[in-house]
Amino acid sequence: MHGQGRRDGRERPEAHGQGGEKSRQAASFGAAAAAYERGRPPYPPEAVAWLVPAGARTVVDVGAGTGKLTRALAAPGREVVAVEPSAGMREQFARVLPGTRVLAGTAEAVPLPDASADTVVSAQAWHWVDPARAVPEAARVLRPGGRLALVWNSRDESVPWVAELGRILREYAAAPAEDRQTDRVGAPFGPVERRDFRWRHPVSAAEIADMVASRSYVITLAPAVRARLLDRVRALLAAERPGEMPYVTECHRAHR
Question: What is the percent of the chain where pLDDT is above 90?
């Protein structure tokens, strides 16, 4: 699954009694699966190469969404298995990647045997999970020496028009504070390594609007408020006429 984040280290929403809202947002993506597929960016090849060893023969993409990362994981001789809790997302995934197995499941309950994978990856999703359950579940699925890889794409707000886009979003729909929870990846995993990759994704104004519309905190807005927000976003895009979106891809990995 999914999420925009630049807020490492803050308290989780549950600490402020917002667990119900977090759960509502986590369950919202299926309603916007088509917009998610159109608007969300892929992942740069250099980030994928850093996250997943070249020799990994079985890779599990947990919280796969519509397969934005899954399609970048394909390699000769490699089996890629997607796990996704949302039926709407799985339906969209099956349309986009009909040859890839996608299973109903979560990071806390992966429907695969013990020691059956070389790498477990989670893109735009680890901040939604319960690490007390997801960490041992990843360890169960991984073979000894396997790797847990976590990744997020975030808009690069060092670019002025992107910063203005972020300001508009926060005005209408404050995103939930996203604790990456990478500090909760403990034993049996070793230290968590991090590396960031900056890149630019060619994109149309319509695709940027879809990216905004696919955010959990936008999906769950009242319809009239969501419409006003998207009008403001489209006005900004009409003025700026961007042809690309700058991103920072934040990568974390740990070995079992």
Answer: 71
pTM value > 0.90: no
Identify the helix (H) or strand (E) that includes residue 26: helix 19-26
Determine whether 15 is exposed, middle or buried from the number of CB atoms within 10 Å of its CB (0-12, 13-18, 19+).
exposed
CA–CA separation, 166 and 162 (whole Å): 6
Q: Which two tokens stand for residue 99?
A: 């040859």
Residues whose CB is less than 8 angstroms from the CB of residue 248 and which lie 6 or more positions away in sequence, other chains included = 153, 154, 155, 156, 196, 197, 198
Spatial CB neighbours of 4, under 8 Å, sequence gap ≥ 6: 154, 155, 175, 178, 215
Spatial contact of 28 and 3, defined as CB atoms under 8 Å apart: no
CA 58 to CA 140: how far, in whole Å? 14
User: How far, in Å, CA of 72 to CA of 61, rounded?
Assistant: 11
The secondary structure element, H or E, covering residue 120 is: strand 117-123
Omega cis (within 30) before 188: yes
Q: Please report the pLDDT score of residue 214 as a whole number.
A: 81
Report CA dihedral (235, 236, 241, 243) to the nearest 10 degrees: -120
Token representation of residue 93: 């995934």
Give me 53's structure tokens: 């060893």
